[in-house]
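Please, structure for the following, as tokens.
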Amino acid sequence: MSERKRIHLVDDEESVRRSTSFMLRTSGYDVDTYGSGVDFLGKVGDAKPGCILLDVRMPEMDGIEVQAELAKRGVKLPVIVLTGHGDVGTAVAAMKGGAIDFLEKPFEKGALVEALERGFERLEEGDAALASQAEAARRIALLSPREQDVLRGLARGHPNKTIAYDLGISPRTVEVHRANAMAKLEARSLSEALRLAFAVGLDD
């Protein structure tokens, strides 16, 4: 029998740790839980290979800071960032930090399992890119210049209102361009669109 895939769940809310770990264990995963980023960092040296589910808002160190410290230590385990307070800026910080995905609470089980499976693929492939730069460039080329402008703003962590001001258009028009860009990119989430943008340097 093959070994079950392991998940390291880092969240300061006991109720979230309990409910999420139960859901994951019944889905066939092994789960280790940690009540804070500091707790996890203290034990990560002995942690078995697996995916990290990392909450953003935690005392002492937030998820983005923990993610940065993991990178500094050379820990290559795939990270999926969880937050109940999602915004574009946090998504950009998480994705630039190398996160596999960015999920807002309450998340759907299907979306979480899909993100985890991408993480385990990354673990098996080492540092192989999820999507090749050529494929990302092909998709970005499908966008109109204005849609690329909007995606560039998102990749820089700007909210719709700021993008609208910078481009001299209305926030509603930004929303339309953003929706059209997501459809053309075949991106099911903002994090997926950001991955493509980062792959071609659209955040420069």
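The two ends are 47 Å apart (CA to CA). The chain has a mean pLDDT of 87.
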